[in-house]
Amino acid sequence: xxxxxxxxxxxxxxxxxxxxxxxxxxxxxxxxxxxxxxxxxxxxxxxxxxxxxxxxxxxxxxxxxxxxxxxxxxxxxxxxxxxxxxxxxxxxxxxxxxxxxxxxxxxxxxxxxxxxxxxxxxxxxxxxxxxxxxxxxxxxxxxxxxxxxxxxxxxxxxxxxxxxxxxxxxxxxxxxxxxxxxxxxxxxxxxxxxxxxxxxxxxxxxxxxxxxxxxxx
Amino acid sequence: xxxxxxxxxxxxxxxxxxxxxxxxxxxxxxxxxxxxxxxxxxxxxxxxxxxxxxxxxxxxxxxxxxxxxxxxxxxxxxxxxxxxxxxxxxxxxxxxxxxxxxxxxxxxxxxxxxxxxxxxxxxxxxxxxxxxxxxxxxxxxxxxxxxxxxxxxxxxxxxxxxxxxxxxxxxxxxxxxxxxxxxxxxxxxxxxxxxxxxxxxxxxxxxxxxxxxxxxx
Amino acid sequence: xxxxxxxxxxxxxxxxxxxxxxxxxxxxxxxxxxxxxxxxxxxxxxxxxxxxxxxxxxxxxxxxxxxxxxxxxxxxxxxxxxxxxxxxxxxxxxxxxxxxxxxxxxxxxxxxxxxxxxxxxxxxxxxxxxxxxxxxxxxxxxxxxxxxxxxxxxxxxxxxxxxxxxxxxxxxxxxxxxxxxxxxxxxxxxxxxxxxxxxxxxxxxxxxxxxxxxxxx
Amino acid sequence: xxxxxxxxxxxxxxxxxxxxxxxxxxxxxxxxxxxxxxxxxxxxxxxxxxxxxxxxxxxxxxxxxxxxxxxxxxxxxxxxxxxxxxxxxxxxxxxxxxxxxxxxxxxxxxxxxxxxxxxxxxxxxxxxxxxxxxxxxxxxxxxxxxxxxxxxxxxxxxxxxxxxxxxxxxxxxxxxxxxxxxxxxxxxxxxxxxxxxxxxxxxxxxxxxxxxxxxxx
DNA sequence: TAATAATCGAGACGGTACGTCACGTCTTGGA
DNA sequence: TCCAAGACGTGACGTACCGTCTCGATTATTA
Lengths: 217, 217, 217, 217
Known about the structure:
The structure is a homotetramer of 217-residue chains. Chain A is mainly α and 217 residues long.
């Protein structure tokens, strides 16, 4: 999204005139937003509260972010570089997926849960944020799955017709479902089940060709 | 949940004193809520707008519903009786699942989409609504899957260890994921993929016993 | 002006539905506005401060008044009925004018001064308020002069061609001038001077006819 | 006032170090302020708008002027030298006063009106500006009247007891009154009326001595 | 020919108040 | 009892200007 992009650009080497953006304010805003979100919940996360806690004017927030959700998104993506290339590489598809999913499930069932629930809820009300969220955080998560599947294809663990995008849906879909709907726990057993289900689905080579024929019937 | 329950009770034959509840107002409120949600989106759905459009006082709304989301939920559950016993019975697991999923996906990609997106978003902010939504609509959807799987087990299409709950997660999880995140279309191809993935996962009998052993390693 | 008019009407016999306007809030708002104006000055008179001091919501203020100046105007005009028919009647033009001007000058050089200075200043920035101010307060003041002059004409103290409107300008103009510009005191001597000047101007019968001729030259 | 004074001094030959003040910026600022005031009104006259229109930084404005009103005042006083010694000298009191008032009234009823209305309004909110305005522009205007009256006294047209200050009040007071209150037009007829009223008031020799006696009664 | 000094544009900053929106509650009179 | 109308206190919204504060660049005088 434009706002967040500008923010990052303006903090990068800045050849332009005028007082430079305050890195201190930016940090205080992001920290305040996360603090309020984690402690008081998303309902309490509003611009006035963030500004007050960060000792910052509302205008400064609005100058760089379109809404509180964008601040949270930036807080999450700012951590990402450290996690980059984080696609685990254990040598086996099952190992990789478990290495990916178990920490994910663990984080979402504790402190990360409320954050993602809030951002997904916000996505339903704000199309501009939805796009930013989808193309940054969510896309990054899906990309990891795609990388894992690609390696498994090279190793011959799954056929080349295997649909990596479907795999990402089969992993993150149910996780999201349990996170948002709360009908069952996000626990280890669930992680194992998801991995198994995803692997057998990837190995099932019907996907491409045969399916098209069926649909045509 | 209490409010919605009262609503239904109060419409049933009830010998209480005073002026009876206006069925006309109830209908107008529900229709207005759905109209606003479908046309102007979740962000525009508020009590004030519903009251204005329904020609009803805000008080009347607050008397019978706890929030706009409960109105929408009532609109959906009021339609349910007509769809009840909707678990399709084609004679095969694949047929049943397709019969279930294809219309679901079709509805969600058109007029039902905004409605479910709104209710799930609301669930993240309101725990009381979340419970109502989960135990009514969502539970009903999952129950259909469970019935289909049970029949498949009786037919011997899938082992008795097959996890019907996981099957529901594998079906509705990815659907929800695409609905909420919008990274890919909710189309026919997706429905076929989901059905295939779910079936191979159900047939994979590792699920229960072996898994526990692995986790213990 | 519409806002102020409605306010008065709605406090009068009200045959309409809905919760009636709170006379208590109205009183608290007007009193708070006057208190702030008298103690902290016009610069400190803003809607937020009035609302806070009156224990009232901003919305309630905006519902009935277009700006703080209108509240002050209502405070002044609400006192007017008590002063109505206040055109003094001493039996002589000079007596009447003195009876009118001396208290005016005295009030403006003490507590009324800041109030009128504020309202006139506001009139320069807000055309809608300017009209309200002119047609209520200012018009009432001018009307008193007109009544005094009319009686003097009947008594034969001044010719019938005497211009009562000009008399009002000659009285209130210089008073306003000193009030706003502050180049000299608003004192008793000034009141006497104004009365004398106004009287001789009224007796000077050139006004109408001869002037037109001159202008045509 | 200090700011404005500095402004003028700093433009005069001054051997201070550093980059000299930009005459170009000063001109642009003054012109922009006048343009906004004349076209968009007093309410739209703010530093931000002036800076934007002049293509100048806000800092530059704040460095040389204390508020927008001072800029306007400087715009008017910068024109004054050209008008200096403007006390008309037609040989008769009436001629002089007409020569003075008619152009004044004409200017105020067209382009000068908004300007003076703004400055007088500002004077009510800012005591420091009020003093600057009173002792520069307003004092100059009053001085002209005093000079005219002095010549009339030498000619014997009015007694030596005639109060020139009162004359200035009788002229500028009503003009200001109509300008600010807008209850009647600033036209030729009004100019004639004012002149006549002022002359008869000046000729009425009661003013000083007798009045004191009356007041003591 | 530097060093010093003041100004300039640009533009971000902490503030204050604005006027609006929706909330959920509360009187009214009437059905 | 319920209903519509609609006023009420509350809290947050996003915006407009305020006056101040860096920046890098520019243009003078002084050493």
